[in-house]
Write a sequence for this structure.
């Protein structure tokens, strides 16, 4: 996690660390400018400090700006498709696309895999945003039973 990450300990025993991936970081990580393509990537780590396994997709992660704009959660394949469309990649070799998709899936937060008690999951979560989105004032919210927990990212 980058040094400028935010962290929150939910009352239900789940800890979340997260940070917004900047244009420069996305260039380094993905060889593409995700924010320019309308994709906001959040690097996240979820630590399960409960006695039960948890599944990240049941945490209902939501991203919004301080102005109230809500961003749609994207599966890694949808983020990749949006990125390729932005860069005009309409013709590509199937094998190259397959390898790129596998690489995108590999760095994504595994939303469907249960996190055992005492374990953690780490990866990127992607959100759809208007092209050239302002990355300031973003709040990641986790709604997992009880009161929602908000994490101010910047």
């Amino acid at each position: 996690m980058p040094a400028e990450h935010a962290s929150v300990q939910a009352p239900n025993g789940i800890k979340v660390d997260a940070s917004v991936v900047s244009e420069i970081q996305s260039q380094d990580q993905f060889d593409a400018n995700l924010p320019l393509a309308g994709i906001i990537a959040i690097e996240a780590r979820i630590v399960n400090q409960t006695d039960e396994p948890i599944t990240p997709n049941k945490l209902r992660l939501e991203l919004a700006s301080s102005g109230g704009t809500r961003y749609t959660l994207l599966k890694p394949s949808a983020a990749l498709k949006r990125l390729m469309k932005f860069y005009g990649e309409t013709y590509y070799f199937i094998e190259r696309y397959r390898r790129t998709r596998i690489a995108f899936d590999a760095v994504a937060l595994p939303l469907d895999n249960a996190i055992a008690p005492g374990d953690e999951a780490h990866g990127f979560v992607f959100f759809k945003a208007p092209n050239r989105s302002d990355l300031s004032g973003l709040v990641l919210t986790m709604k997992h039973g009880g009161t929602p927990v908000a994490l101010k990212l910047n």
Observations:
- Helices lie at 23-30, 76-86, 94-107.
- Residues 6-152 form a domain with the Immunoglobulin-like fold (CATH 2.60.40.1240).
- The longest strand covers residues 39-48.
- Strands lie at 6-9, 14-20, 39-48, 61-65, 70-74, 120-128, 138-142, 149-152.
